[in-house]
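Model it.
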Amino acid sequence: MIPWLGVLDDAERQRVVGALQVVEASPGDFVCKIGRRANYWFGVLDGLLKMSNDSSHGQAITYTGLPPGAWFGEGTLLKREVYRYNIEPLRRSVVAGLEIAGFEWLLERSIPFNRYVMSLLNERLGQFIAAREIDRMNDPDTRVARSLAALFHPVLYPGVGTLLRITQQELGYLAGLSRQRVNEALRSLQAEGLIGIEYGGVRVLDLEQLRRHVHRGADGAAQAR
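Modeled.
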């Protein structure tokens, strides 16, 4: 669940593996909290996290889910800022962290690592631009499809593969819907042959068609406006 280790040379890999810290996080904990200064680059080894805003100042918004294989927070580290979002576990999760000194050492030393981080930033920007448009929509099926398509992103979340271990309640937290409405949306997507509902998770059967379903929903909403 640490895909970027593969782009490092032996000396870099040995130093970084020795510096990685691994902890367990449970619901109610904060891996990142709005206003705290960023000191680590984080990755999900197991479990599921969510990135959200501060609901005390208005409507709660979940920006995205973070499944196994996800690494995040590099933008905040590069700008040496405080967090502008919260990262919380939806269930008991295992999280790894690399201190900012190790992160910056890799940036200064490794061209392949720089390319990896640039790829993450580019893919994440595209994901958030699309999410901004879709979050304005009221169609539950499209919201669920968008949440699933985002979680199956092969560059940002290479550890997921084709089967995501997620409950309908957890998916509801990410999509901003009730578990019952998520169930209806999943069954609709399954009837279209886009996903398969399995015990304890969802399997994507056609990721490209699932993405097209999301874009069709977004285009339809734009035309309606």
